Write the C-alpha cells for this entry.
Amino acid sequence: MREAIPAEKPYFLASLREWIFTTDHKKIGIMYFVTSYIFFLVAGVFGLVIRAEQTQPGFQFVSPEFYNYLLTGHGAVMLLWWAIAAHIGGFGNFLLPLMIGARDVAFPRLNAFSFWSFFGASLLVLLTLIPGNHIKMMWTGYPPYSATGDAGPTALYVFIIHLIGISSIAGAVNFITTYIKMRAPGIGFWNTNMFVHCLIGANVIQLIGVPSLAGAVTMLLLDKYLGTNFYNPAKGGDPLLYQNVFWFYSHPVVYVQVLPIFGFFSEILPTFARRPLFGYVSMVFAVWGIVILSFEVWIHHMFVSGVPDWARVIMSYTTILIAVPTGIKIFNWIATLHGGAIILRTPMLYALGGIFMFLIGGLTGIPNAMVAIDLGISDSLFIVGHFHYVLAMAVTLGILAAITYWYPKATGRMFPEGLGKLSFWLTFIGANLLFFFQMVVGMLGNPRRYPDYPAIPEWVMLHQIQTVGGIILGLGILVFTIAMIKGLKGEKAPANPWQSPSLEWRIDSPAPAHNFGDKPPKVEPDYHPYKYGAPPAF
Amino acid sequence: MEQVFALPAAWWFDAVKVWLVVAVVIYIVTAIPGVYFIMKYRYKPGEREMGDHEREGHWGLEAAWTIIPTIIVLFLATYSFTIFKLQRTPPKDAMTIKVYGFMWGFQTDYLDDNGKVIKTVYSFYKPDNYDAGENEKIVVPAGKPVKALLTSKDVIHSFYVMPARITEDMVPGRITHLWFQINKPGEYWIFCREFCGTGHSHMFAKLKVVPPEEFTAWLKGDNKGLAEKNTETKESL
Ligand SMILES: [Cu+2]
C-alpha cells in the first residue's frame, strides 16, 4: 500500500487520509512522536500537581486517592510513552531507514499496525481520566494490592500493557529485520551509526522481555477476575512471583529507555565537536554488554522484598557490574570532546547537559546496587530522585537534544536557537534543584509515594526547594514546546545544516517521500558516519 | 539527620560515607576534564575549525577505564556484602517481636520465653495526622537488640525503622525479618514504605525506646482493658 505522492512533494504535506492510512516510516515516526509528546505534557502536569501537593505537610490540593491516580498515570505514561515510544517509535522509525540507506522498514504494514495498537493503548489511557476509572495501584501494580478494590480497574491497566506490548514486539521484529536485511551496500556492522546500534540493542531487550511483562499482568487479570491464585498466598500462590516476572522485563526496560539516548549523545557529540566518536568499537561492545547484563540484575528491585539473602548478594554483584559498560560510554564521550572544535548549539547543550546528569544518575545508582545501603534507602525518595536523574534528566534532555538536532530533517526548518537555549537552561537548572534535593530528603528517610509526611522541619524545607525546581522545570518545557511549534514557520533548513557525513543528511530537508529515490544511496568504501571532511559553515 | 547511635544504622552510615567518597572522586575526575575540554577546545573561525581526526580511540585508555571501574565496583559490592551480613544476622541475645502489617496499621505481638503472645500493641493509621496515642506506641528496651519477624494480613507493606536505617517488606504468606538496636531512649519513626493504597502515607508507628527496667514494667503492666479496646477499634474499622 504505497501512496502515490509525487516525489517532489515533502512527505508531510499529505492529506489527513494519507496520514491515517500511511505505511511510510517517516509519517509513522512523526505520529508516534506527536502522540508521545502530548502524553508527556499531560504526565508532566500530573507531575507538577504531585510536586505541589508535597510542598507542605497535610493534604492541600488533592485527596490521597487522586494523588495515587496521578502518580500511577505519571509513572506509566512517562515510562511507556515518553521514555519508549517517543524515541524508539518516533525517532527509531524516522531515522533507522534513513541511517542505513533503506527505502522503508522491512514490514511497513506491520509498522502501521504497531503504531495503531500503540494509539489504541493511548485511547485506553485517556479512559482512565474518567472518575471511577482511576487506576491507583502505581505503574508497578503489585499484587495482592492490585487485586483489591482500592486499586481501581486493574483490567484496564492490563489491556493497556497488552496493547503496548503487542506494539513493542511487532516494532522490535520490524526494526531488527530492517537492520539485518535492508542496509544499503557499504553499510556494515562497524560503520553503522551508534544510534542504530543502540536502537537494535534496545529492541532485542524488548523482544525478549515484553512477553515476560505481558505474562505477569495476564496472571494478575486472571487472579482478579477469574479467581485463579497465581499470586494469592491464601491458596498457595506467591505475590513475589509477580515481582520476579515483572522486574525480569521492567529492569531491562530501563536500558530500552536509555540506550537510544546513548545513541543520540553519540550522534550529536561528534557533530558539534567536529571529530569522530572516541572509542567507537568499545562503544559497540558496551551496548551489547549492557543488553546481556540487563537481564541478570532484576532482584535489585526486590532487595527488601523477602527474597533469600544469597539471591540479593549475587544480584548485588551483577547490578554493580553494569556500571562498567555505562562508565565506558561516559568516558568515551568526554574523550570525544578532547581535541574537538566545539560549537555549543542547542542540540549540543542538551546533549552535554544530559551526559552530566547521566553521570550523577549513574553514581547515585551505585548505592542501590550495594545491598547494604539499599536496605536503608529502599522505597525512599532517594530512589525516586536517582531514577529521575536517569529518566527525567538524561532521557528527557536526550530526547530534546534529538528533537533540536533532527528537526530540520523532519520539518525542513531550523529549530529556534534562542528559545532552544533558554529552554535548556531553565530545564537543566529546574530539574537539578528538583531531583537533587529529592535524593537528599530520601536519604533522610522520607518514604516514596507519600502525598503527606510528618512536619519534620528539614523535610519541609527540602520539599519546598524541590517545588521551586519543579516550577522552573515546567517553564523550561513550556518554552521548549513553544519553540517547537514556532519553529514550524521558522528559518528554512538546508539539506545538511550540520555538515554531517551521516547518510540521513544526504537527502533534502524535509526528507523526500521516497527517501533516497529508487536506488540505494552510494556509500563510499571508507564511509563512516563521524568522518567530518570540511570546516562547518553554521 | 537523626544521629543517634543505633544498629545497624551505624554500619549503614559508614557504607554511605564510603560510597559518597568514591562517587565524589569519580564525579570530579570525570566532570572536571569534561568542562575543561568544553572550554579549551572551542570552535574558532580561521583558527580551530576542525576537530582532531587522528585519534578515534586509544586502547590503553579504554582498557584503563574498563578495568579500574571494574575493580572499584567489585570492591564496593564486597564491602557492602560484609555489612549486609551484619545487617541480616541478629545477635544471639536479641529479643523477638512479631509485627503484622494491615490496611492500614501495624500489630505488634510481644512474646514470652515460650513464644506465647503476652502483649499486643495496635498502631492504627490516622487519615490526617501523625499523632500516636500512648498505647499505640511500639515500646522496646534501649541498648538491646530486637529481632522483628514480619508478615502481612492483606497486601504487601513494609517496616522501616527510621533510626536504625533498615527496611524489610511485610509479605502475606511469608515471614521476613530484620533486627535493630537503639541505645538512646526517645521516640522514633516507623513507616510503611511499600505502596499499599489510600492510607499508605499515614501508615506509621511511633517507636518508643525506654530504659530496660521501664520496658519490663511496661510489659508486665495490666493490659486487659487495652486489649479489649483494641479489638473494639479493629472491628469498627
Ligand atoms: Cu502499608
User: Anything to note?
Assistant: The radius of gyration of chain A is 23 Å. Chain A is about 65% helix and 0% strand. Chain A has one domain: 23-506. Residues B 101, 104, 157, 192, 196, 200, 203 surround copper (II) ion (CB under 6 Å).
